[in-house]
Amino acid sequence: MTERPRLLPLLGQAGHSGRDSTTCLYRCGNACDHPVPNESDNPYLGDVVNAGISRRGVVRAGAVGSLVLGLGAAAASPARAAPAASAAPAAAAPARSAGVRKGKAGPLTFKAIPPNRLDSLIVPNGYDSAVVMRWGDPVLPGAPALDLANQSARRQSAQFGYNNDFVGVLPLGRGGRRALLVVNHEYTNEELMFPGFTGLEALSVEQLKVAMAAHGLSVVELERVDGTGRWEPVRGHRLPYNRRITALETPFAFTGPAAGSPWLRTAADPKGTTPIGTLNNCSGGVTPWGTVLSGEENFNQYFVGGDGAPAELKPKLARYGISTTARVPAGSRRWERAQERFDLTLHPNEAHRFGWVVEVDPFDPDSRPRKHTALGRLKHEGANVIVARNGRVVAYMGDDERFDYLYKFVSDRKFLAGDSAYAWRHNLTLLESGTLYVAKVTGDSPAAEIDGTGKLPADGTFDGTGTWIKLVSGNTSYVPGMTAAEVLTFTRLAGDAVKATKMDRPEDVQPSPLTGKVYAAMTNNTNRGVGTNPGPDEANPRNANKHGHIFELVEDRGDNTAESFTWSLPIVCGDPADPSTYFAGYDKSAVSPISCPDNVAFDSAGNLWISTDGNQLDSNDGLFATAIEGSERGHLKQFLTVPYGAETCGPFITGDDRSVFVAVQHPGEITGASVEKPASTWPDGDFAKPAVVVTWRLDGGPIGG
Ligand code: FEO
Ligand code: CA
Ligand code: CA
Ligand code: CA
């Protein structure tokens, strides 16, 4: 049974572009109110349009063939044996679940969910759903249940954190009955966490530390409910894998060329090797070797005192959205009152210790999580890895800001298959050295045909070619005037210098494990073509783009390590009745409205799943699915919707296709809402709690199929 839909009053007021203003404040520190951080004079695509012949047809023929591992789904859900030397329990072992679709594409037969404003999680007929973990649920053995009147940093550090975003589910053992759930906790809504909340400035130091402990990641051991796609947390006193990683106190290790550089040294860490905590962890990815990557995104909002930073650092701070003129910028979380390191006047390098891709090994609960400097420093949405034909691993990444860039990393070392301790240790080093690239994208239609309305050019497609511009390889910089450590620490400035293409907020970027083609969500950019901002180009073809689009990238020769590619836009989002939308040419009367794509994922049949954040069509956010190959390409349907005020995060489809996990982030995040006056009472009927949900088919069949 799904929950009975219930209508709630629509509290609040619209923020920028119709987004609720509370979301704007808490999630990204009112980024839309601030100047666009990218003030570089890079040409946008329209300036460099190349009317040359597309190589797309050639590439398509050879696109398949990247190594696909694990269970066949996007994240491949690998399971891995713990090495004998590790403290990790020996229960983890290689797994290959039964019942895998093995890439056999079938039609997506579920009946689409209509747009709605209900305060429930809605799934199609024939499906069920259940909360797996919610904010405040015990994670560590002996942790107390959530008690708002007695919350403390110590309790929160043992409980599930707030605002779950990325979801990874990694099989544990061979039986298909156990798994590790790994979840990011991106940020906190203090107004929905603390009774009597009157403002961030008024929080006690202990409450600030609660918020810091509610950030980070959780690792939770799950077990499957017999014979179904439902999963539940394992309860008990021996939960060796369960873990909390927080912004409050968890030590990390820097790896790669910038580790230990002067930019990363602080009074508390004069060697520049051991940052404390992780911030604003948004999306991420599961690696083929069974670890989890997590992107540190809007870290700027946690810092004050940029006005007192050294003059030479100010441009570097400003490029990441940190105010260098205000002592306490509007929307600051005021964490400097709990930990002095968040005051940049006193500790100007502390900000450089965030904005990295983090790697966590959930199978080794004693392992120190790492921040890989070789992958550059951005507002990382996430990172998704594929093993290229030549064995090197390639991580695709987006920098989620208006007019920022797409990146990829290619490892120096090659992936080792197998479950030996040697292979495990080797694979853990893959993201420590390699080559970092940024994308330059060119359209193949005349610039005059890209008029900003979304009207297709005469060749019928928004498409073209692109190159990956090398920024750093190992310790060698390819950016004039910048050292390798500088390029990796101030990667946005390096992208400016090489004139990368300004995109419409690149969010999740993920390669299909079946084809090696790469899909990136451009969530929106209401500043495109507005005022003095860059106008439309073929890859970002709409002015004031409020609904976003999907960018498909096909590496030349089907080689994910290639330095050139072709691309197209299979989906230009919005209401299908809006002529500016496009669904790969599919009959628009059969597709669902979609707005603000954020996260992408694949099932084992290769269908593309898209979750949204910030629907601008007067509906709750949702999860959608479409075939991306064949005659059904573009037949997009809404699979579920999340409760009122929430965004849909994750998603994660298990390798056997029997379960889809989503993270319901910030339910009830509506201006004026509070613990006492909630805009959402999901999931328990009292006050709003972010939660991870699993959905499965009642007849045991594959999700969506
Ligand atoms: Fe946290 Fe880019 O969304
Ligand atoms: Ca074209
Ligand atoms: Ca996101
Ligand atoms: Ca993803």
UniProtKB/TrEMBL annotation:
Coiled-coil stretches: none
Lineage: Bacteria, Bacillati, Actinomycetota, Actinomycetes, Micromonosporales
InterPro entries in UniProt: PhoX, TAT_signal
The protein, known as: Secreted PhoX family phosphatase
Origin superkingdom: Bacteria
A Pfam family it matches: PhoX
